[in-house]
Specification:
This protein has 464 residues and is mostly helical. Helix content is 75%, strand content 2%. Strands 1-2 form a two-stranded antiparallel ribbon. The relative contact order is 0.16.
Length: 464
């Protein structure tokens, strides 16, 4: 998530359409940025980094050991495909509830609960005696990841309104680091503990527990620094009423404020009527499809081509690790462009090149295909940036984030499952790779539309 910045990118917040914030927006941002004392904000930065580190290890730590898990639990290829689709399904189902939970309990408290759920799920997963229990524990962990996924941009927008770009880059880098570390270290950890895949997977619960421990004082500190509830409610209502006439502010549930000043009234306009919101949702969906196919099946593709398990895990780690530097640089580049479609197209072309390499020479050119797929996977920080650029207000970002991620993850559910089913029935990887290439072309087309210079509030107001 990022907005276009000029002059001093750390202090000046310009909108994606080039206009400067209104006086109402400036005062609102100032309140959001100064309502906490320095120490909770510094601890919040640590909490954001630790939370981001734990948003993918539950997924990428499983890929390199998927064969051992299947053997140990008697899991079929179709069920394994279901397991690789579970992240998208959980992100769609539980992520859609995140804005509602945040309004009731506060975004920081919900992230804390999310980290606790991740810890519990990852700790219980190695204890599973069968496929059903393993899936249930995975769902618990993925539910915690889902709500944190949606609320990370909201936390940044609320408490760091003058540092949106750097903070987005920071947590995107941390997310990529956690993703790569889990892929690289899970197999060596399992081998160091007697080739026990259960212990190897269970270690990922430790950093999640650390994140939960840090978020506990963060929540307490932020609550102590917040205004009294009645004052906060009055301020929020005043801001929404003031912002609505000029921005068509979108509430976190996707509705647009009508600007009438009447408490509780909302316009009949919904974010589902925004073409840009739909384009972002579709783009998010296809990039998530590619990412979860890569995280779930890429190590197995390499292993079936004769690559050792530890090397296959390392290759996945490199694929994910490329997101560390690129996640920091790409949002900054995207924010300086009026149309981000060419960036989306370039990433998709890299993905198509990687798939072609896996088709013709999976083992011989493994490192080259890994690099191409790593670049392609950076569509994720790009879509996060676009979510921040395609809404004018904090509530708009919350609504757009929930809609784009919820819609996107629903779209991405069938992909990994179909890959597993095709592989099981054909006995090879050519049919799955052909499917992956078709989906990547669809991602390219959606990215071109999502990259247009539009804001959802403007579209909703024009349709009113």
């Amino acid at each position: 998530m990022m907005v276009v910045m000029a002059h001093d990118p750390a202090t000046v917040d310009h909108r994606a359409d080039g206009r400067t914030p209104t006086s109402v927006e400036t005062r609102s941002a100032a309140r959001a940025g100064t309502r906490t004392s320095p120490w909770p904000r510094r601890l919040l930065v640590v909490g954001i980094v630790l939370a981001a580190l734990n948003l993918r290890p539950a997924i990428t730590g499983l890929g390199p050991l998927l064969e051992e898990v299947r053997d140990g639990l008697g899991m079929s290829g179709t069920v394994a495909g279901l397991l690789t689709s579970a992240p998208a399904l959980c992100f769609a189902v539980f992520g859609s509830a995140a804005p509602r939970l945040a309004r009731r309990f506060g975004p920081a408290a919900v992230v804390l609960a999310g980290m606790a759920a991740v810890t519990a799920g990852l700790a219980l997963r190695p204890l599973a005696g069968g496929t059903g229990t393993f899936l249930a524990a995975s769902v618990v962990a993925l539910a915690g990841i889902a709500v944190s996924n949606v609320l990370m941009p909201v936390v940044v927008k609320r408490w760091f309104p003058d540092r949106i770009g750097p903070m987005t880059g920071l947590y995107s880098m941390a997310l990529s680091l956690g993703t790569a570390a889990a892929a690289a270290l899970t197999v060596p950890a399992a081998r160091a503990m007697g080739d026990d895949w259960r212990l190897g997977l269970g270690l990922s619960a430790l950093p999640a527990a650390l994140a939960a421990v840090v978020w506990l004082p963060v929540v307490r500190g932020l609550r102590a620094a917040e205004p009294a509830p009645s004052a906060a409610s009055t301020t929020a209502a005043t801001d929404r009423a003031a912002e609505a006439p000029s921005t068509g502010g979108v509430a976190a549930d996707g509705s647009a404020a009508d600007g009438s000043g009447t408490a509780g009234r909302t316009s009949s306009l919904r974010i589902t009527r925004s073409p840009t919101a739909w384009a972002l949702g579709v783009f998010f969906g296809f990039q998530a499809t590619a990412a979860y196919i890569t995280m779930g099946w890429l190590p197995q593709i390499f292993r079936d081509a004769g690559v050792p398990a530890s090397t296959a895990g390392l290759l996945l780690a490199v694929t994910m690790g490329l997101g560390i530097p690129l996640s920091f640089a790409l949002p900054r580049i995207a924010a300086r462009l009026r149309h981000q479609g060419p960036l989306a197209a370039g990433l998709a072309v890299c993905g198509l090149g990687g798939y072609a390499g896996l088709w013709f020479a999976p083992a011989e050119g493994a490192w080259a295909w890994t690099l191409l797929l790593g670049i392609s996977n950076c569509a994720f920080p790009l879509v996060l940036t676009l979510i921040g650029m395609r809404a004018r207000t904090g509530s708009g970002v919350a609504g757009l984030s929930a809609f784009a991620q919820g819609t996107g993850y629903l779209i991405s559910i069938p992909g990994p499952l179909l890959v597993g089913t095709l592989h099981q029935h054909t006995g090879g990887w050519h049919a799955p790779l052909a499917l992956m290439a078709v989906l990547m072309v669809a991602q390219l087309c959606a990215g071109l539309v999502a990259g247009r210079d539009r804001c959802v509030e403007d579209e909703l107001r024009m349709r009113h």
